Amino acid sequence: MNRAKILPVVGWRELAQLPDLGLSDIPAKIDTGARTSSLHGEVVEEFEREGKRYVRFLVDYDGEPHKCEAVHVDIRGITSSNGETQRRYVIKTPLIIGDVRFRAEITLADRSSMKFPMLIGRSSLRRRFQVDSGYSWLQTPGMDVKKGHKP
Fold first, then answer.
1. What is d(CA 145, CA 139) in angstroms, rounded to the nearest whole number?
2. pTM score, two decimals?
3. Is 111 helix (H, G, I), strand (E, B) or coil?
4. Which of 15, 79, 93, 118 matches a 20 to 30 Å C-alpha distance to 25?
């Protein structure tokens, strides 16, 4: 008999941590309709270090720009929800939601017009979390769990 693994449950929004980038408490929308996770990041430059390609970028989610750099693994065409394809940098970095830490593939995008600076897509959620879209902050210590979809 195959026993199903009990997975932690996330709400439709959570606070995410990107420790290797020095970013914490990033408001993130959980979006099973999106394949790839995305972070609001403005690319400043590409460079090489020890034979690896890096990208330096600015992330602003709390009114203050945070300078980050990461190895970039790819530049891909990503189709947004409005059907437009954009070329985006892809990085891999540890992501923490609640007590779960894993390496995630994240695209850098202009999310300035979006309510959330980060979107967690189904590739990051798969086999790690269940989603209950009727709640918020289920994996966010210090936040009151909220029922419903009101931001």
1. 9
2. 0.90
3. coil
4. 79
- Report d(CA 12, CA 131) in Å as an integer: 7
The DSSP code for 56 is E
> How far apart, in whole angstroms, are the C-alpha atoms of residue 124 and residue 31?
10
Q: What is the DSSP letter of 84?
A: -
User: What per-residue string of b and e applies to 38-74 under the rule 16 or more CB within 10 Å gives b?
Assistant: bbbbeeeeeeeeeeeebbebebebeeeebebbbebee
* β-pair type (9-10, 130-131): parallel
Task: Give the angle subtended at the CA of 100 by the CAs of 99 and 102, to the nearest 5°.
Answer: 145
Handedness of CA 103, 104, 107, 113 (dihedral sign): negative
Burial of 107 (0-12, 13-18, 19+ CB in 10 A): buried
- Read off the amino acid at residue 18: L
Measured CA to CA in angstroms, residue 84 lies from 30, 42, 70, 124 at distances of 21, 19, 26, 22
Here the tokens at position 79 are: 């189709």
CA distances from 126 to 3, 57, 130 (A): 17, 27, 8
